[in-house]
Every structure is written in C-alpha cells, then in structure tokens.
Amino acid sequence: MKILVVGSGGREHALCRALARDPAVGSLVCAPGNAGTAELAQPHPLDVTDPDAVADLAEAVQAELTIIGPEIPLVAGAADKLRASGQRCFGPTAAAARLEGSKAFAKNVMRAAGVPTASSRDHTEVEPALSDLDEFGPPYVVKYDGLAAGKGVTVTADRQAAVRAVHACLRNPGDRVVIEEYLDGPEVSLFAIVTEAGAVIPLLPAQDHKRVGDGDAGPNTGGMGAYAPLPWVPHGLSTQVVQTVIQPTVDEMARRGTPFHGLLYAGLALTSRGVRVIEFNVRFGDPEIQAILALLSSPLTGVLTGQQAPVWRSGAAVTVVVAAAGYPRAPRVGDPISGLAAASALTGVDILHAGTRRDTDGRIVSSGGRVLCVTAIGSHLEAARGSAYEAVSRISLAGAHYRTDIGDPGRLGYSGPPAVRPTS
Q1: In the prediction, which pLDDT does 412 show?
Q2: Which of 391, 392, 294 is nearest to 345 (CA)?
Q3: Domain total for the chain?
Q4: What is the structure's pLDDT at 371?
C-alpha cells in the first residue's frame, strides 16, 4: 500500500515511523515533511491549506490512503476533496471538523448530546463577554472560537489579563470568543478512531504539558511533552469516556447529517464533580501521539481502518519537546542541530522531528518553534523518562529549552487544584 501523510511536524514523523513498521505499507510520501520524515518517506512540496492541492498530490503519487495530520487542511475541506475524487482518506469532512474549528459549535454539539462539559457562553461583542467574566468568576477561562494552534486559550486569575484576552479574541469582524467556567482537576487526552462503519476505538489515555515551563509556569504552547499510559487514572476511564462523550458526540453528528469519521480527541478534566470535556480536536494530538504510537505494536493501517484492534507494548513512553530559543513568542530558526545520532543510539529512543529542515550545506537546522520530540520507551515510566532526558542531554541546539518535569513521579496523580490550571 502507498500512503500519503499530509503535514510537516512531529505528529507526522511519528505517523511515518509507525507506518514504516507496518507490513501492509509499501511506500510512503510525506508532504511537505521535514528533515526527519525525509529519512522514511519521500518529501513533496505542498500547501496544506489548499484542499485541491492535497487531492491533486494524492492522485499524482497514486496514494491508496491519505492520512491528514494537521487540523487546518481538515477544516478547509481536504478530506471532502479527496473523497469527492474517489480517493481513500483518514480524516473528517469540513462540516465534521467544525468540532475543532469552532469551540462554540463544539459546545453546542455537546449540549445537544448531553456530554458533560464546562458551562459556557460565546460572544461576538466585548461588553457581554466581559459581563460573563464576572459571572463565571476567577480563574477566568477565555477561548478564541477558531483555530489557534493550541494557543488560543487564556486561563488566569488576573481579571485584567482576561479582559486583554477578550479584546484579543475579538480583534477582527466575525471573531467570536467563548467564556466558560474553570474546571478543577488534572487533564487527560483520550483519542478515539471512528471508522466509516461507525465503530469507536479508543487509544491509550495520555497526558500532555501545555505550559512552557516546569511546574506549569509561563504561557501556553502547542505542547512541551507527554507520557503514556497514565497509572493514576481511574480504572475503566476509557470505557466511560467512550460511552458518555465520544459515542454521544458521534451519534449527534450523524443526527445532524454530518457523520464523523477519523480521529476524535477529547481533552478531559477529571474534576471533583466527575469527567468534563475541555475541548475536541479532530486529529492526532501533538505531542501525545508521539508517546502513544511508540507503544503501539499492531499495524497502524489496520487500526486506522478498524480491521485490527490496537495492541499495546508493556511499559511506558515519554516525549520531551526541545523548543527553539524564543518559543513560544518569537522562536528563532535556522540554528544547526547536532548530537542527533548520539541521542538516537540509545535503546528505545526515537528522535522525532517537529520543526527541522536541511540547509544548503546539508545540515539539519531548526525551522519552527517546537524543533524535536525526543521519545523514549521503557519497562516503566521512570525508565522511559530517564532515557528521554539522557537523549535530550546529547543534543545541541543554541538557545534551546525544554521542560524537565515531563512524567515526573512527583507530579503524577492529583493533590489539589493549582492556582491556574493549564489548558490546551
């Protein structure tokens, strides 16, 4: 089977890595790809925001299955174009992708489906939004309605910061902001594959770390690291979430005439009142999927198509993101990266590229804010964590920074609500 993977980040490198181990896969194309995916898949220039370009490329390379990694082409309708031209695709239609493309729409679906989530209101004008800030009270939760690469959320106890966030969300005509209640408790990411036959297949729960600094300090990012599985979550959590969140949402989308097929992600808060949904995404999360796929032993194509149930390796996986100087505000690019071979030589370690390219001299250099996703598996969480950080220590990138507390046993579980809980 020839497969086209659309995207250029760490998620796409993780997908290519898993597909390269799949006996059903004969060849891979990753477009536009990065310096890491180029070692596994043929790179190809692609404007991922152009659905026609995605469909044309799939036809040109004779892909038998196209897997769309990022949210932007899904919301733009790339899956619609592919299916309209008779090509197989893993990913939802543009109408179904509104579950990620509009937080207000997702809230509407959740209310109709009876899915437990935070109380919220959405607005297109500043004054009623500010009124709701006072009604919901601190910590304030302010979300931009549209796509924001995981950084369109402000959670703060500072009302002035929340007011600034409201104004930022309503900067342009047509913008919408969502104000919602604060949810206490730790976050869990649960991904579920929804097949075209309607089957819901949950993957391993994982936890990511959104804030840039140790101890959840600093601004939100696209994600600074993740680990799986989660030894502290309640037994049967995945089954509960499928029954109370994923399946009702899938059923409601079908009722609306916009059936969902692809990957549905539920960002969850395990609150003092029970499980609550923070948000939906319609694609594999980054960096959680790097850790999850590292533990998958069954062929990925069989899992994506619903022909095989996922089988997991024993042990644990940890992913640590190495970020460029200045990330997340103004990342510096073009810095050379060294030590990758030494890091990769460690047992159980994969160096997944997120923002890299080769320069004119053939050197691997940084090309984005999140540069590398250092992923390690081990017999238990602490072993995986040790290998991941040993690998990070072997990599050299000027000005790079990373969190040192990903999967830290001292932070596992939950000992009470923080002053401000990070969200995605």
Answers
A1: 63
A2: 391
A3: 3
A4: 98
* pTM listed for this prediction: 0.93
Per-residue confidence at 90, pLDDT binned at 50, 70, 90?
Answer: very high
Q: Which amino acid belongs to residue 333?
A: V
Question: Residue written as tokens 């097949």?
Answer: 195
For residue 142, CA distances in Å to 77, 130, 237, 344 come to 27, 10, 28, 40
Regarding whether 324 and 229 lie in a shared domain, the answer is yes
What kind and span of H or E run contains 190?
A: strand 187-194
Tokens 């997340």 label which residue?
328
Residue 417 reports pLDDT greater than 70 = no
Residue with tokens 């919901």: 136
Q: What is the pLDDT of the chain when averaged over all its residues?
A: 94
Structure confidence at residue 413 (pLDDT): 53
89 within 8 A of 65, measured Cβ to Cβ: yes
pLDDT 10s digits, 41-70? 999 999 999 999 999 999 999 999 999 999
3-class SS of residue 220: strand
Q: Which domain holds residue 214?
A: 187-411
DSSP secondary structure, 49-108, as one string:
T-HHHHHHHHHHTT-SEEEE-SHHHHHHTHHHHHHHTT--EES--TTTTHHHH-HHHHHH
In a domain, residue 321? The reply is yes
Indicate the DSSP class of residue 37: G
Domain identity same for 241 and 382: yes
- At 207, the amino acid letter reads Q
pLDDT(424) > 50: no
Domain CATH number, residue 217: 3.30.470.20
pLDDT digits (tens, 9 = 90+) for 341-359: 999 999 999 999 999 999 9
Alpha-carbon separation of residue 415 from 232, 274, 420 (angstroms): 12, 16, 14
Question: 67 and 231 in contact (C-beta within 8 Å)?
Answer: no
Buried b or exposed e, range 198-234, using 16+ CB within 10 angstroms: eebbbbbbbbbbbbbebebebebbbbbbbbbbbeebe
Helix, strand, coil percentages, rounded to 5, for the chain: 30, 30, 45
Residue ranges of alpha helices (H) inside 141-199 are: 159-169
Both tokens assigned to 408 = 């830290």
